[in-house]
From TrEMBL:
Gene: msbA
Keyword check for Membrane: yes
Keyword tags: ATP-binding, Membrane, Nucleotide-binding, Transmembrane, Transmembrane helix, Transport
Cross-referenced SMART domains: AAA
PANTHER family noted in UniProt: ATP-BINDING CASSETTE SUB-FAMILY B MEMBER 10, MITOCHONDRIAL, ATP-DEPENDENT PERMEASE MDL1, MITOCHONDRIAL
Gene3D superfamilies (alphabetical): ABC transporter type 1, transmembrane domain, P-loop containing nucleotide triphosphate hydrolases
Domain ABC transporter: 371-604
Top-rank taxon: Bacteria
Main localization category: membrane
TM stretches of this protein: 26-47, 89-115, 179-208
Location of the ABC transmembrane type-1 domain: 73-337
Protein name: Antibiotic ABC transporter ATP-binding protein
InterPro entries, per database record: AAA+_ATPase, ABC1_TM_dom, ABC1_TM_sf, ABC_transporter-like_ATP-bd, ABC_transporter-like_CS, P-loop_NTPase, Type_1_exporter
Length: 608
C-alpha cells in the first residue's frame, strides 16, 4: 500500500480533475442508491389495490420513520398527478425512474471523463520521471544493471501500473461511496435486515483476502522475467554479427526459450490466481443473497414488519453492494500486483545520484588558464586504477596519455568529464574543483570523441546539432569540412538530411568517426578529450581522421588518449602511464632518447 501512496503523489498536478472526479462520483453513488428506492412506489402502484392512502401531505416524524415518510410522500405526489388513475401513476413513476438513472449515468460518464486526464497524466509523468532519472544516474549504476531490465521498468512496469494499480484510482471514491449510500438506504428500509447482512459480508471478505496474499510475489517474478527477456533481445540485436559468426544461434535460442518458458509458467500461476477472484466473490455474494432472502422472507411473511415492495427494493440494494464490493476486492488484487511493478520503478527513482550537483554550484562560461589533476586516486570497484596521479595541462597545449591497456588512460577521460568522481585528490579547471561546478557548465567546456563513434538513428544534421542545438546548416557544413567529412556527405542522397540508420550503420567506421569529430567541432568547446579516436580504424581511414583531428585541435587545449603512438608525435607533452602512475613524461624525441617505457612501446608498434 505504501507504493500505491507513492504513486498517488504524481496525481498532485491534476487536482482539478481529481476534484471533478470526486464530485461526479458522489453524485453517481447517490443517484445509484436512489434508483432502487424509486422502485418502491412503482411496485406499490402495480401490486397494491389502494395506492392513494396518503391523500394529505405527510409530516416528517424523524429518521426512524424515514422509509414510511418517503413512501407516503411519493404516494401523495402520485395522487396529485394521477388522481387515482393507475396508468397515469405508472407513467409518473417511470418518468421519475428514467430521470434518476439518467442523472446516475451522466455523473458516471463525467467521473470517467475526469479520470482519463488524471490517470493518463500520472502515467505520463511517472514514465517521464523514470526516464529522466535513468538519464541522470551515473555510468557506474548501469555497469551493475542489465539494459533490458531498465527498459522493462520504463516500459512494461509502467504499463503494468497503468492497467493494474492506476485503475484503482477510479475505485477510491466511486465504490466506497456507492456502498455507503446503499447501506444508508438499506438502514432506512430495515435496520434488522441490514444488521443481519453485515454479519456475513465480513466473513466473505476474509475468504477473498486470503486468495490475494501471494499475488505480489507471483507478479514480481513475472516482471523480473520480462526484464530477462528484454535483456536477451537487446544483447541478441547488439551482438548478432558475433552470434552468427560463432554459430551460436542455438545457444541464444535455448537461453531465450528457457526465459519464455519461465515467463509462461509464472504468468499461468498469476493469472489463474487472479481469475479465481471473480467467481469466488460471485459465489459468496449469491450465498449472502440466499440467506438474505430467507431472513427477509421471514420479516415479510411471518413478522409482517416489512412490506413486499420494500423487501424487493432491499434485495436490489443488497445486490448493488456486491458490485462495488467485487470491484474493491479486484482493486486490492490489482494493488498487490501493481505493488511489485511500483517497487521496481521506485527503486530507480529513489536511487541516490552520487554525482548530483552541489547547491549553488558554480556556472563556468569559459576556460582561461589550466587544468590540474592534483594527487588523484580512483577505483571502479576494489583496486585503484589511478594512484596519486598529478598533471597540469596549460591552456592551448596538447597532452597525450599513452600506456598499455589497463594503465588508467581512459579513466582520466571519465574523470575530467565527471562521469565518475575521484576517490582522493581533486581535478580543477582554472583553480575551481570540478565538483563545485554545475555538471552542464563543466561539460559545455568539453568536446568528447570516443573510440566508438556513438551516433543515433537520425539525420547527419541532427546528430551534429547535439553539440549546438541552434546551429545553422552553414555551420554544420563548415564543421563537416573541418572534420574531413564533407567530401562523402555532399555525395549522399539527401546531404546533411540523410538518415544514417541505427548507430550510423549505413556508414563506414571512418565516416562515423569523422562525423563524431564534426559533432565536437560544431560544439566548439575550449577543451577537447579524444579517447583513442583512431584506434579502431584502418590505415587509410586513420589518416583521414588524423587530419580531421589536427584541424580540430588547432588553438584548443587537448587531452589525447592514444593507442597508436604514431598519431601523437607532435603533442606538446606525452605522459606515459603504467598501473595508474606516471612513469615517464616529455616530448616524443625526449622520451625516445630516454630509451625507457615509451621507447619500448614505440618499438613494439613499429615491429607490428
Amino acid at each position: 500500500m505504501n507504493q500505491f501512496i507513492n504513486i498517488l503523489k504524481y496525481a498532485k498536478p491534476y487536482k482539478r480533475f481529481a476534484l471533478g472526479h470526486i464530485i461526479s462520483n458522489i453524485l453517481y453513488a447517490l443517484f445509484g442508491a436512489l434508483s432502487f428506492m424509486a422502485l418502491i412506489p412503482m411496485l406499490d402502484v402495480l401490486f397494491k389495490e389502494n395506492t392513494q392512502k396518503a391523500i394529505k401531505e405527510p409530516v416528517y416524524q424523524g429518521i426512524g420513520h424515514l422509509n414510511a415518510y418517503y413512501k407516503d410522500f411519493m404516494a401523495y405526489q402520485i395522487n396529485l398527478y394521477a388522481q387515482q388513475d393507475k396508468a397515469k401513476a405508472l407513467i409518473f413513476i417511470i418518468a421519475f425512474i428514467i430521470i434518476i438513472f439518467l442523472l446516475k449515468n451522466l455523473f458516471s460518464y463525467l467521473a470517467y471523463y475526469f479520470m482519463v486526464f488524471l490517470r493518463n497524466g500520472v502515467v505520463r509523468d511517472l514514465r517521464n520521471a523514470v526516464y529522466k532519472k535513468t538519464v541522470e544516474l551515473p555510468l557506474s549504476f548501469f555497469s551493475e544493471q542489465k539494459k533490458g531490465d531498465i527498459m522493462a521498468r520504463v516500459t512494461n512496469d509502467v504499463t503494468t501500473l497503468q492497467y493494474s494499480m492506476l485503475p484503482v484510482l477510479e475505485l477510491i471514491f466511486r465504490e466506497p461511496l456507492s456502498i455507503i449510500f446503499t447501506v444508508i438506504i438499506m438502514l432506512i428500509i430495515s435496520v434488522k435486515l441490514t444488521i443481519f447482512v453485515f454479519i456475513f459480508i465480513p466473513l466473505s471478505g476474509v475468504v477473498i483476502s486470503r486468495i490475494g496474499k501471494s499475488l505480489k510475489r507471483k507478479s514480481d517474478r513475472v516482471q523480473k522475467e520480462q526484464g530477462v527477456i528484454l535483456s536477451t533481445i537487446e544483447e541478441t540485436l547488439t551482438g548478432l554479427r558475433i552470434i552468427k559468426g560463432f554459430n551460436a544461434e542455438g545457444i541464444f535460442n535455448q537461453k531465450f526459450n528457457e526465459s519464455t518458458s519461465r515467463f509462461y509458467h509464472f504468468s499461468n500461476k498469476l493469472l489463474n490466481r487472479q481469475n479465481l477472484a471473480s467467481p469466488t466473490s460471485e459465489i459468496l455474494g449469491v450465498i449472502v443473497i440466499s440467506i438474505l432472502l430467507w431472513y427477509g422472507g421471514q420479516l415479510v411473511l411471518v413478522d409482517k414488519s416489512l412490506d413486499g415492495s420494500s423487501f424487493i427494493a432491499y434485495i436490489g440494494l443488497a445486490y448493488n453492494i456486491l458490485v462495488p464490493a467485487k470491484a474493491i476486492s479486484r482493486g486490492l488484487y490489482n494493488i498487490k500486483q501493481g505493488n511489485a511493478a511500483a517497487e521496481r520503478i521506485q527503486e530507480i527513482i529513489d536511487t541516490p545520484n552520487p554525482l548530483k550537483d552541489k547547491e549553488n554550484a558554480l556556472i563556468k562560461t569559459g576556460f582561461d588558464s589550466q587544468i590540474v589533476f592534483d594527487n588523484i586516486s580512483f577505483k571502479y570497484q576494489d583496486e585503484y586504477v589511478l594512484n596519486d596521479f598529478s598533471l597540469t595541462i596549460p591552456k592551448g597545449k596538447t597532452v597525450a596519455l599513452v600506456g598499455q591497456s589497463g594503465s588508467g588512460k581512459s579513466t582520466i577521460a571519465n574523470l575530467i568529464t565527471r562521469f565518475y568522481d575521484v576517490n582522493k585528490g581533486s581535478i580543477s579547471i582554472d583553480g575551481i574543483d570540478i565538483r563545485d561546478l554545475s555538471t552542464p557548465s563543466l561539460r559545455q567546456q568539453l568536446g568528447i570523441v570516443t573510440q566508438d563513434a556513438i551516433l543515433f538513428n537520425d539525420s547527419i544534421k541532427n546528430n551534429l546539432k547535439l553539440g549546438k542545438f541552434d546551429a545553422t546548416d552553414e555551420e554544420v557544413i563548415e564543421a563537416l569540412k573541418i572534420a574531413n567529412a564533407w567530401e562523402f556527405v555532399k555525395d549522399l542522397p539527401d546531404g546533411i538530411d540523410t538518415n544514417i540508420g541505427d548507430s550510423g550503420n549505413k556508414l563506414s567506421g571512418g565516416q562515423k568517426q569523422r562525423l563524431s569529430i564534426a559533432r565536437a567541432v560544431l560544439k566548439s568547446p575550449p577543451i577537447m578529450v579524444l579517447d583513442e579516436a583512431t584506434s579502431a580504424l584502418d590505415t587509410e581511414s586513420e589518416r583521414l581522421v588524423q587530419v580531421a583531428l589536427e584541424n580540430m585541435m588547432k588553438n584548443r587545449t587537448s587531452i589525447v588518449i592514444a593507442h597508436r603512438l604514431s598519431t601523437i608525435k607532435n603533442a606538446d607533452e606525452i605522459v606515459v602511464l603504467n598501473k595508474g602512475k606516471i612513469v615517464e613524461q616529455g616530448k616524443h624525441n625526449e622520451l625516445i632518447a630516454k630509451n625507457g617505457v615509451y621507447k619500448k612501446l614505440v618499438d613494439m608498434q613499429s615491429f607490428e
